[in-house]
Amino acid sequence: MYKAAITGTGVFTPEQIITNDDLVVAFNAYADKWNAAHADDIAAGSATAMAHSSADFIVAASGIEQRFVMDREGVLDPDRMFPRLRNRSDDEPSIMAEMGVDAANKALAQAGLKAADIDALFCAASNHERAYPAIAVEIQDLLGSNGFAFDLNVACSSATFGIQTAVDMIRAGSIRRALVVNPEICSAHLEWRDRDCHFIFGDVATAVVIERDEGLSGDHFKVLSTRLATKFSNNIRNNNGFLRRTHDAMDDRRDMQFMQEGRKVFKEVLPMVSKHILDHLADDGIDPASLKRLWLHQANKTMNDYIGKKVLGRDPEPGEQPNILQDYANTSSAGSIIAFSKHSGGMSRGDQGLICSFGAGYSVGSVVVERS
């Protein structure tokens, strides 16, 4: 049985930013248009006026202050309210592959590897641009990596599920090195016209290099153990799942885009995730209080604060449970990897931490690592 280690990470960040103030101006303009168009129904009591959003409401509800997106103009157009993503020809790289290649190259550079050194590549994301051919195989081709590749989809837990998939193959000896790539175009499946969720998501891509832990000389993180769990729930869902959409599709089927029953999610997911992490640590004989870092899924600041307190048995100290929500918003499976990539410095050899993602399914994945 071989051991595995994380030797490199990479983050692709889009150039365009939407602040809360930008978003509120666009949403409120849309709400005013909708209210004017339905004024008679509102007056008659058969329709409810659409309420305005505000930057204060968004921060209080989520902790989010801005988000990076692939297309700002389409999202902020009150007559459109979703991104303009050009349909690419079949001989052009897909949007997800282009994002993924950027993150993958950064991860490879940090690991001191070339694409040809990779034996397996997994594209693990909550929404895939197409059904087939696999985005992972396209990224493999664009990079020039070896072996095989395939896609995974476990919603917001896709990254940690991809990491365990890679780690298990390395442990078994079937591969030496793997890339787990997480391109998330969350802006394309968000309903920007729904006040309850219009602020949640942003776009990004992350990548993680995982290698057999033999003769590694540079800084890396040993993977001590991994654990996954799923339990079916319809409280977070997307009944469409692909990026292309039309006004008709949105108007006829609200549930063809991101939907969630927020209160139920809070009530059901938080205990599930907290117990999952504590059971995982207990089975490994690790005292939760000894963890130097918790890199949690970046869905909501209140959720992360709750989980951090449950796991550590106290309020997390500054830096112990880093949040990137304020800058990136919820980036689905990529969130915990952004936190890990940007906030794993300052740890000494032997220090341990835990990467955890959770979301629709319900699903939860945790990875215990040690600085080496």
Classify the fold: give the CATH topology of the domain at 221-371. Answer: Peroxisomal Thiolase, Chain A, domain 1
Strand content is 15-25%
How confident is the prediction overall: mean pLDDT? 92
Return residue spans where pLDDT drops below 50 for at least 5 consecutive residues. Answer: 246-250
Q: In this structure, how is the largest beta sheet organized? A: 9 strands, mixed
CATH class of the domain at 221-371: Alpha Beta
Strand order of the main beta sheet, please? 5-4-6-7-1-8-13-12-11
CATH architecture of the domain at 221-371: 3-Layer(aba) Sandwich
Instruction: From the alpha carbons, calculate the radius of gyration and give it in angstroms.
Output: 21 Å
Structural class: alpha+beta
**H-E order:** EEHHHEHHEHEHEEEEHEHEHHHEE
**How many E strands?**
13
CATH superfamily of the domain at 221-371: Thiolase/Chalcone synthase
What is the end-to-end distance? 20 Å
Overall shape = globular
Put simply, the count of helices is: 12
Residue share in helices?
25-40%
